[in-house]
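## tool: complex_structure
## caller: assistant
## args:
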Amino acid sequence: MGGALGTKAEERRGMLSKSAAKAFFLGGTAVTASVFLALTWDTFQQIPGRTNASALTEGVKRGKHLWESNNCMGCHTLFGEGAYYAPELTKVHERRGPAFIRAMLKDPQAMFPGQRQMTNYHFKDEEIEDLVAFFEWVGKVDLNGFPAKPNLGAPAQRAQVAGSTGHAPEVFGQVCTTCHSLQGAGGTVGPALDGVGDRLDAAYLEKWLRDPMSVKPGTTMPKLPLDDAQLGALVTFLSSQKLTKEVAQ
Amino acid sequence: MKFQSQKVAWGFFATCMLLLSLQLIYGFIMGFAHAGYDGLHQWIPFNTARATHTNLLVMWLLAGFMGAAYWIIPDECDRELAWPRLAWVQLIALVVVGVTAIIGFHLNWWEGRKFLEIPRPLDFLVVVDVLLFVGNIGWTVWKADKKSTTSMVLFFGLLAAALLYLPGMIPTDNQTVDSFWRWWVVHLWVEGVWELIMGAILSYLLIKLTGVDREIIEKWLYVIVGFTFLSGVLGTGHHYYYIGTPRYWLMVGGIFSALEPLAFLGMAIYAFAMAKKGGRTHPNRVALLWTVGCAFMSFVGAGFLGFAHTLPQVNMYTHGTLVTAMHGHMAFWGAYAMLVLAIMAYALPIMTGRKVYEGATAGFAFWTSNIGMTAMTLAFAVAGVSQVVLERRAGMDFLTVQKEIEIHFWGLILAACLFTLGICAFIYDFIRYGLPTAPLRSGEARSVTPPEILPTAAAARGAV
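## result:
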């Protein structure tokens, strides 16, 4: 390419000739296009390993299809690609966990009342499992370190909740702590749940969790899509949150 | 206007005006949603507005390129289009496919892949339509006695754009592979072959408007598209940093995309230099303003702002944030929207025989839309940088950050109002130009170009 610029004709005339310019264009394009094609070939050799292509189950494939046929990228980003209206979902399986994803997809409006809305696509249970599988696969692709961990100020809190309340049910760590905190870790939308077992009994908690609006009309506490087993585990766990016991110890 | 068949360009330009108006409406819907007012969510959710906004853009730019080609090719080749009626059929087909796609987006019917949302069956129709167009242009060039560099670069740019649509249709179950091919289309279009089209249209406009010798302008056209491909092809690597592709793309993409602004800088210097050399004596000053403005704004938007977040170290934090929207808006406006408006500003007076460019609205449209777009870009920049710092670097929750930056979207909406005012002025002028009814002239230079810059005199002045 550099050679094309320094032809004899150019030196003779003291300037670049049109044919030299054309040669520069064609030559440069040919060289870069060849390198690009070679790198493309090599990339395709590496992709199966870097993306765990062997773990691409039928569920993951169906999940990808659901992701596309509902244009999830029109609001969210995945691998940082998409629109910037809703959260980046590459690491959602690791960050929020499957219980949160299921609750969110079952009733998107319930989780963040009064906030930016997500469409309810009325996914069937098996479709939700496919999407969970897709997110789990996506989260394990080698992305050269993306997304980077936040490196300013105090790190995000949510991840620590599960550690500090070892016996908490999965749904508590992934769903409840989005808004509520326990031992200082979690969200700040709803009240802290430290000592909630002192304040509320099990019967009230169950009624409250089943349908918050019937207990307190106008509350922003969502009616979460919980099954009986999850509900039972939550009531047991919340009832056991007593500050008095800790003081006695 | 030299040839009857050039009139078909008017149909494409009118389509541009219509689709651009719709694009603005959907932009406002998204702006308000970001500011916290998503009242239309039930009927037009964000993903519908977004797909409609970007696809309308692509569609009206393609319509603009097609209109430009139907205008330029007969002029450059000195003959009528091969099949003028086919051009009209092809326009109607394009509009039908486009409208079907847009309606589909409102009914949750799409492919859901950023920028390539239109459903697969329609993809095939697009390919057929574009092949008809390229065939029509190609046959006209083929039959012509003279094959100018400008017409050849334009033709090969359009042909390559049509071919590069195909990789986007390769089926795959792997998200990484999917993304990889998608950028073959999107990147190699906007930072590759579309720049060939841009370079060719710019050089046509500069030849016509400045009167500088064709040989000089076309020589620099080669140099600029040479730099474009030298940097832009391997610059595709800046989309391959973080999608599951090998690590070497960080270096390849980083180095070559850092060189991309040079091509745009070259384009800007080229336009300014030629405009200066030609002495700006053409009466249609506004057309020259759009031409030179296009080269300048594409350097700022695509070159400079693209460089601002293309290095892997920066992109690690800005990738997938509103910083991308900042770069995207001014890049598309400067490089391609202004280009289409420039060719319209040049061709409409000749097509219709009216000199609307002499009025005050023509200049008003240029300055207001450009100031509006600059202000929009600044609003996106503030929102985007805030998002990067709060969410990506300090680790705050996504929705909390979005609440924090809502205020900047009111700034965006205000700026967008200004921009819209400018576009309305442009459309008002378009309507005042009316239908393409001007009688044919053997050389359009006679109707609008004063004798002092007719080719021979200009060639003498242009020779270096």
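## assistant note: Strands of chain A lie at 77-78, 81-82, 181-182, 185-186. The mean pLDDT of chain A is 84. Handing back to user.
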